[in-house]
């Protein structure tokens, strides 16, 4: 059986055909322009693929409440033209197959938990640090939606003592995303993040905010692993800095084996940037087999 997968992003749409093992058999990229143009191109690509179902891991905010009249909609996104788009309904009607749906970050986490380094874990977090910041959360074997879905990028953080930057978030200024997302780095330093590789001050400040967020997660959700992905995390020098700062912030308060081995506790994504699309394949599979709300076998 073949499954369709869509990783819906603000810049591009990744479409893939997958099998029950999460293997990507075919893949294409479609730029995100207007909803009409973009969704038509997605539908045309899947049309002759004979998929049993489609899984959509989507940028948001999105409505994940199955009993809501706007279930499957992108809700209040600032992305021009995409607010209040019934992405699940449109794809379901056009393709005539069941459609599984979750946030992009829950999709990436589901990829890691099903096919990657978090297999067998019941409690795990995936944080993306890219154009925005967000986190997918698995707690007690369930992907967490809660009242809406977590908006972990917007937690308050304590400023780095040397940081005078006001923050980039239009809602909160200096929240985690406002201080640590790619556009915040670029506004703070006046250059592309990728060109700042050799400036240690940049990554010390960046690691500070990510370490604060990891410490918040450790103290609230007690995950068994924290996976860090997204464009900014391609700066591999961040990992040792973050681990060192987390250790210092936790300050000996958490004592157990997983946390003691920080090199295997705070880690990069393991699926070569395919975690999102592979998670979307799993969303498609779960929609057919009724594994809801994404209760994972443990
Ligand atoms: P998106 O969040 O739009 O899906 P990405 O995760 O690639 O896409 O994030 C894009 C952001 O990450 C940009 O702000 C960019 O500056 C930053 N970025 C991308 N690649 C790198 C890199 N190698 N080093 C540092 N920052 C990067
Ligand atoms: Zn914010």
> What is the helix fraction of residues, given as a range?
25-40%
The molecules bound to the chains, other than polymers, are:
adenosine-5'-diphosphate, zinc ion
Kindly report the average pLDDT value.
96
Superfamily at the CATH H level of the largest domain? ATPase, nucleotide binding domain
Protein architecture, described:
The chain has 298 residues and is of the alpha/beta class. It contains nine helices and ten strands. The strands form two sheets. It has a five-stranded mixed beta sheet with strand order 3-2-1-4-5. It has a five-stranded mixed beta sheet with strand order 8-7-6-9-10, sandwiched between helices. Strand 7 (133-139) and strand 8 form a beta hairpin. The radius of gyration is 19 Å and the shape is globular. 44% of the residues are buried. The model has no long low-confidence stretch (mean pLDDT 96). It binds adenosine-5'-diphosphate and zinc ion. Residues 9-11, 130-132, 182-183, 186, 192-194, 230-232, 234-235 line the site of adenosine-5'-diphosphate (ADP). Zinc ion binds at residues 154, 169, 171-172, 175, 177-178.
Q: What topology does this entry show?
A:
Layout (H helix, E strand, L loop, with lengths): L1 E7 L3 E7 L5 E8 L3 H12 L4 E8 L28 H9 L3 E5 H12 L8 E6 L3 E7 L2 E2 L32 H5 L1 H8 L10 H21 L4 E5 L8 H13 L6 H4 L5 E3 L6 H15 L9
Parallel strand pairs: 1-4, 4-5, 6-9, 9-10
Antiparallel strand pairs: 1-2, 2-3, 6-7, 7-8
Helix pairs in contact: 3-9, 6-7
Bound molecules: adenosine-5'-diphosphate and zinc ion.
